[in-house]
What we know:
Residues 13-70 form the HTH cro/C1-type domain. InterPro entries: Cro/C1-type_HTH, Lambda_DNA-bd_dom_sf. It is a single chain. The chain is mainly α. It has a domain at 6-61: 434 Repressor (Amino-terminal Domain) (Orthogonal Bundle), CATH 1.10.260. Helices cover 46% and strands 0% of the residues. The chain contains 5 helices and no strands. It has helices at 6-19, 24-31, 35-42, 51-61, 90-93. Helix 1 (6-19) crosses helix 3, helix 1 packs parallel to helix 4 and helix 2 packs across helix 3 (35-42). The chain is globular and about 30 Å long.
Amino acid sequence: MILKTISDLGLAVREARRRRKLTQKQLAQTLGTTQEWISQFETGRLENPSLGTVLKAFAALGIDLNIDSVPGSLRNNDVDTGDLALDEPSFLKGRRR
């Protein structure tokens, strides 16, 4: 599944949660959020979900985010990706030892 929108992310979480036979409440407890947040996220009604919580949900549900699945056209160096570097996030660049 190629995820292009926040709604796609929510749908992926819903499908994975259901496959694992978890309720929204159980997932919310695992993530430290509310059942309402899960519901809104899964249905695409949450406009700006916390990236940290989304990534935590993906990890808890075993959803693999593989950057190798990004089409070559998105790896075009002419495209300004801002802080979303495809090779290494900028927040990690300053932490090298």
